[in-house]
């Protein structure tokens, strides 16, 4: 198969996101199926491709680590942090082995590692000072909440950038609502929208406005971090105020169609009357996205950037109610076939 220059760069980026680091030349050729000749033809040499992608021109490789070294390094970071380390903290502290190597070694996602470490360390006296981190009810509950979610499988996680490692965690922690709002704004940026972030303390505003100016529409976005599930209740009046406040200005700037979007960990007791009331008062439909479904949509966007654009994504916002994983899959399959 022939790859032009842009296709080679796209494959490089996809592999980089999958690995969590920039790929070396040998693994790039092996994993992508792109030949060295094709890279030389467009970039003269592999290091020129690396430089053009904004990465360091150096060779990469990782030494072999045995199981003992994996857990020793993992436990050492837990001791340093005085808690179970997140994947973003592992990256921040530049720990080894690489985060992706844990999956290859144990076949488990990062948030599934605490019980594995507990099983390894429970009878080892050298870990007695930190073993309680991995058996605490709070940590176990959080791990279960994230990893029992069947929608976020490794095949989707592998395309998501490390900055979103805590996205699902934030969506379930009400004390992290500010962080969740910022990350929801970031996800819509990554989807290709031009976003304006307002956040908390800015008066009667949504958390973000995401504009698709070339296609004449905009999204008013509200992020709700909830441990259990979010229900609208009497907040529909506040949402109506948001929408009325911003609709006229958005219409004047060429955004003739407005959609209202709520993102949360889960939804419950969403009555049809609440959604219909918003439509009746504003002529704007309300779309509800579970955090995991939104990540799945972003994963597909990163994996297939030319298939999922802002014009095609618009279809998800046309109807009132919760957007399911099946609807995302259905849209994607429809676009691939066409």
Description:
- The protein is an alpha/beta fold.
- It has 3 domains: 5-52; 67-148, no CATH class; 162-337, 3-Layer(aba) Sandwich (Restriction Endonuclease), CATH 3.40.91.30.
- 50% of the residues lie in helices and 10% in strands.
- The protein has helices at residues 5-19, 25-32, 36-43, 46-52, 67-81, 87-92, 99-106, 113-121, 137-147, 154-157, 167-171, 177-190, 236-252, 272-282, 291-303, 310-313, 325-337, and strands at 194-197, 208-212, 217-224, 257-264, 286-290, 321-323.
- Strands 1-2-3-4-5-6 form a 6-stranded mixed beta sheet.
- Helix 3 (36-43) crosses helix 4 (46-52) and helix 13 packs parallel to helix 14.
- The model is unreliable at 137-151 (pLDDT under 50).
Descriptive terms for the model:
338 residues, alpha/beta, Restriction Endonuclease, 3 domains, 6-stranded mixed sheet, 17 helices, 10% strand, globular
The CATH class designation of the largest domain is Alpha Beta
Low-confidence stretches: 137-151
CATH-scheme architecture of the largest domain: 3-Layer(aba) Sandwich
Widest β-sheet, arrangement of strands: 1-2-3-4-5-6
- Named CATH topology of the largest domain: Restriction Endonuclease
Mean pLDDT: 83
What is the general shape?
globular
């Amino acid at each position: 198969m022939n790859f032009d220059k842009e296709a080679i760069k796209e494959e490089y980026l996809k592999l980089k996101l999958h690995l969590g680091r920039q790929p070396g030349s040998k693994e790039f050729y092996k994993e992508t199926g792109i030949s060295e000749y094709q890279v030389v033809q467009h970039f003269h040499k592999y290091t020129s491709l690396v430089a053009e992608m904004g990465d360091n021109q150096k060779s990469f490789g990782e030494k072999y680590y045995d199981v003992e070294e994996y857990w020793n390094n993992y436990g050492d970071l837990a001791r340093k942090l005085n808690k179970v380390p997140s994947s973003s903290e592992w990256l921040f502290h530049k720990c080894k082995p690489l985060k992706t190597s844990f999956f290859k070694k144990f076949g488990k996602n990062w948030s599934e590692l605490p019980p594995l470490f507990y099983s390894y360390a429970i009878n080892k006296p050298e870990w007695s000072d930190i073993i309680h981190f991995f058996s605490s009810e709070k940590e176990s509950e959080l791990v279960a909440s994230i990893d029992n979610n069947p929608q976020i499988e490794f095949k989707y996680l592998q395309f998501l950038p490390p900055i979103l490692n805590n996205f699902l965690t934030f969506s379930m922690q009400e004390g992290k609502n500010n962080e969740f709002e910022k990350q929801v704004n970031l996800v819509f940026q990554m989807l290709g929208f031009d976003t304006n972030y307002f956040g908390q303390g800015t008066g009667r505003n949504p958390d973000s406005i995401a504009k698709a100016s070339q296609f004449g529409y905009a999204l008013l976005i509200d992020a709700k971090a909830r441990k259990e599930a979010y229900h609208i209740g009497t907040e529909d009046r506040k949402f109506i105020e948001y929408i009325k406040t911003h609709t006229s200005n958005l219409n004047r700037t060429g955004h003739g169609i407005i959609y209202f979007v709520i993102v949360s960990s889960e939804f419950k007791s969403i009555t049809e009357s609440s959604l219909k009331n918003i439509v009746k008062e504003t002529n704007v439909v309300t779309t509800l996205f579970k955090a995991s479904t939104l990540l799945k949509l972003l994963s597909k966007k990163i994996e297939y950037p030319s298939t999922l654009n802002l014009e095609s994504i618009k279809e998800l916002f046309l109807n009132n109610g919760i957007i399911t994983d099946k609807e995302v899959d259905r849209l994607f399959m429809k676009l691939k076939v066409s």
